[in-house]
Specification:
four-stranded antiparallel beta sheet, 13 helices, single chain, disordered N terminus, eight-stranded mixed beta sheet
């Protein structure tokens, strides 16, 4: 064998042994627990992946997780916050109370087989392009591992797995927060599928989500268009205004819109149009003025087209409040576990995904990244985990479940989430979260330090969910 290859294998072996030697006995027990449940967790994840249920419709996915929690000794409360697919699984008693989040909703229209070439499992159906089939399942695996430690008398306190629907649309956690779901929780732990592995100490973008409808008067588009007042004209004027406004906003702002109804046929002056709009920025303070301006522009478009308009809030979410104290603990546990390893077949799968999405064919990124500085303007997306983080300290994690540079919210992530690349990331996330939760149960001082940072970052802010009056929009 080539001398360089021999030395490389020796160094890898030494590294693996070193990782194993560093892991304390109780954390090895947590790892063993996740491994003992691994095949069942993979089966649950694959069933959720195949079901691919969208926001507030995750009936089977929610049931799979809640039933498995119940079978493992948790007390399960279903239908919390008037949301049929939301639930809380609880084990233990007293303090500390440590919760872990689970998401399980899919995205419309990106169904995909578990293969590295684009082909839908069911044409037009939903798919897990954000890996939430892995998210919820890994979190439940972590909760079970911690529950077994409480059951064995190794630690004391309460563990909660919180099943949270509709993260991709509507943001179900907002209604759950209003219902007081996290009121007794000391620290929350979460993760998200990613293309790399690291403790997540970056924020997310604040966002507001709303609908604008225009109503005019229909008429024959050729015979008597003067009798018509076009809702479609108003829609076009509105989107034109938004696009001109882009020159005068900060680079951190994002505005998206989706035309949901622009008229039905060409020879009718449309009397109705509908637009779904999102405004984002680095923080809520910077997002709100842009939102108010974009909202105001809808009235201007209606005046110009001589039509009526209606604005409807869907929901709004906060940026994530970072907790570096907790993030450092998560980082230590990731480094104890060491990097993921992939087979030749998995590397080839990843490279094919990269080929099909026009990315450099570098394969999987198994590296555990160093603990980062928290950036002022992190970019990226938005999540209702941000709102949770303004109510309770939140420790977050990202773990590789797809090849480097994979387009997110796409068929490529769906493909990886239904096979071993996704499974490996899910299992690693479960282990890292359970180890971090164990540290919180073991160390009352650590819990207080995490809480202290949370209070300092939050300041005198008084949280109020940005949601319309009334019940959650189930069935919309």
């Amino acid at each position: 064998m080539n001398t360089k290859i021999t030395l490389l294998l020796l160094f890898l072996l030494i590294g693996l042994v070193a990782f194993g030697q560093k892991i304390p006995k109780d954390k090895k027990q947590l790892i063993a627990s996740v491994e003992s449940h691994k095949e069942e967790l993979i089966s649950i994840s694959d069933q959720i992946w195949a079901n691919a249920e969208i926001a507030f419709q995750e009936t089977e996915s929610s049931k799979l997780l809640a039933d498995y929690a119940e079978a493992n000794g948790f007390i399960v409360e279903r239908g919390v916050a008037d949301i049929p697919t939301a639930f809380i699984a609880t084990y233990g008693e007293g303090k500390p109370v440590i919760s872990v989040l689970g998401e399980f909703d899919a995205l419309p229209g990106i169904s995909q087989k578990a293969q590295p070439t684009k082909e839908p499992l069911e044409a037009g159906a939903a798919g897990h392009g954000c890996g939430h089939n892995l998210f919820g399942t890994a979190s439940l695996g972590a909760a079970i591992a911690v529950k077994e430690m409480i059951e064995a008398g190794k630690i004391k306190g309460t563990v909660k797995f919180i099943g949270t629907p509709a993260e991709e649309k509507f943001f179900g956690k907002l209604w759950m927060l209003e219902a007081g779901v996290w009121d007794d929780v000391d620290v929350n732990v979460s993760w998200h599928p990613s293309a790399d592995t690291k403790a997540d100490v970056q924020s997310s973008l604040a966002m507001v989500d709303f609908i604008v409808e225009f109503k005019g008067q229909a008429a024959h588009a050729a015979a008597d268009p003067w009798n018509g007042r076009s809702a479609s004209d108003a829609l076009e004027l509105y989107t034109t205004g938004i696009n001109y406004y882009r020159e005068h906003i900060k680079p951190t702002v994002r505005i998206h819109y989706h035309i949901q109804d622009g008229g039905q046929v060409v020879n009718v002056v449309p009397d109705y149009s509908k637009l779904w709009v999102r405004v984002r920025n680095t923080d809520t303070k910077g997002m709100l003025p842009v939102f108010e301006q974009v909202k105001k522009m809808a009235e201007g478009a209606a005046i110009m087209a001589n039509v009526d308009y209606k604005y409807s809030l869907v929901s709004g979410i906060r940026e994530t409040l970072v907790n570096r104290t907790g993030g450092a603990v998560m980082q230590e546990n990731l480094e104890l576990l060491g990097p993921l390893e992939y087979t030749e077949e998995e590397i080839a799968f990843g490279k094919k995904i990269q080929e099909m999405t026009d990315k450099p064919q570098v394969g999987m990124d198994s590296k555990i990244y160093p603990f980062e500085e928290t950036r002022e303007n992190p970019g990226g997306g938005s999540t209702d985990v941000g709102d949770v983080s303004w109510n309770v300290p939140n420790i977050n994690l990202g773990v590789t479940v797809a090849p480097k540079d994979t387009p997110w919210h796409s068929w490529a992530v769906v493909a990886c989430g239904g096979m071993s690349i996704g499974h490996k990331g899910m299992v690693m996330a479960s282990k890292a979260m359970s180890m971090t939760m164990y540290d919180l149960f073991e160390d009352a001082k650590l819990v207080e330090e995490v809480k202290t940072e949370f209070k300092e970052r939050k300041g005198d802010d008084v949280y109020k969910a940005m949601i319309p009056d009334g019940p959650p929009p189930i069935g919309n």
